[in-house]
Automatic annotation (TrEMBL):
TM region positions: 19-36, 56-76, 96-113, 120-140, 175-192, 199-217, 229-257
GO cellular component terms, A-Z: plasma membrane
Family of the protein in this entry: Belongs to the Lgt family.
Keywords: Cell membrane, Lipoprotein, Membrane, Transferase, Transmembrane, Transmembrane helix
Keyword DNA-binding recorded: no
Membrane disposition: Multi-pass membrane protein
The name this protein goes by in its record: Phosphatidylglycerol--prolipoprotein diacylglyceryl transferase
PROSITE patterns, sorted: LGT
GO biological process: lipoprotein biosynthetic process
Compartment annotation: Cell membrane
Free-text function comment from the UniProt entry: Catalyzes the transfer of the diacylglyceryl group from phosphatidylglycerol to the sulfhydryl group of the N-terminal cysteine of a prolipoprotein, the first step in the formation of mature lipoproteins.
Pathway field: Protein modification; lipoprotein biosynthesis (diacylglyceryl transfer)
Annotated organism of origin: Pseudomonas kuykendallii
């Protein structure tokens, strides 16, 4: 068993002002993705400058934050937020949904593309390789918050999380997700997108791989207490939400290569 590193969730406190690591992880993820996107901008659209990219980053970041929070409320704990709507603003405590954030990004991307002469999938293919950076950073934030831990286990790297009432050694599922959704997914998409691909193919690969990685990790991750397992004694809300991603991602890739077998 490995000892859980006791990290204060508050990175910096100045009087009543508290800056949490969870929030900083979002800033690190967005900032790193922004920097990498600027290095590929000329390949994507030579006429765009950094100001145009800044606008795109701003609107997609709003989609991540607003969509992620609203997605968690709707998908995972609607009753609690209906009972106390002010809980919606307590984002430093966690409670963000990837699937809600993805829907927010898709909506922001569609709106931005309409205003700037780019199709939805042109922009999504450009954005997709940078998304795992934010995902990985967010999972580190979950780990520091000692939330979303895994099932009890006797693996050598199991940890006892301070927020676990049972104080059992558990899978550090946040780190599994960091490795798969963050590191592995970034490498897959970064290498794949280095060469011209048919429109929709990069977006399809992102949806397919993320859906598979998340579906797998859900087997060792404890489901949200207020939901539990939805069916069969193992099916979680995360897996339910990943099923259309896996099918949709595979469908996008097949469609992309049938429409455009050889990239322009």
């Amino acid at each position: 068993m490995l000892p859980y590193p006791q990290i204060d969730p508050v990175a910096l406190a100045i009087g009543p002002l508290k800056i949490h690591w969870y929030g900083l992880m979002y800033l690190i993820g967005i900032g790193s993705a922004w920097w990498l996107a600027s290095r590929r901008l000329s390949r994507f659209e030579p006429s765009w400058n950094n100001e145009k990219l800044s606008d795109l980053v701003f609107w997609t970041a709003m989609g991540v934050i607003l969509g992620g929070r609203l997605g968690y409320v709707l998908f995972y704990d609607l009753a609690a937020y209906v009972a106390n709507p002010l809980l919606i603003f307590e984002v430093w405590k966690g409670g963000m949904s990837f699937h809600g954030g993805l829907l927010g990004v898709m909506l922001a991307t569609w709106w931005f593309g309409k205003r700037n002469g780019k199709s939805f999938f042109e922009l999504m293919d450009f954005i997709a390789p940078f998304v795992p950076i934010g995902l990985g950073a967010g999972r580190i934030g979950n780990f520091i918050n000692a939330e979303l831990w895994g099932k009890a286990s006797d693996v050598p790297w199991a940890m006892i999380f301070p927020t676990d009432p049972a104080q059992l050694p558990r899978h550090p599922s946040q780190l599994y997700q960091f490795a798969l959704e963050g590191v592995a997914l970034f490498l897959i998409l970064w290498v794949y997108s280095r060469k011209p691909r048919p429109t929709m193919a990069v977006s399809g690969l992102f949806a397919l791989c993320y859906g598979i990685f998340r579906f797998i990790v859900e087997f060792v991750r404890v489901p949200d207490a207020q939901l539990g397992y939805l069916a069969f004694g193992w099916l979680t809300m995360g897996q339910v939400l990943c099923m259309p991603m896996i099918l949709g991602g595979l469908g996008l890739m097949v469609w992309a290569y049938r429409r455009q077998p050889q990239p322009a």
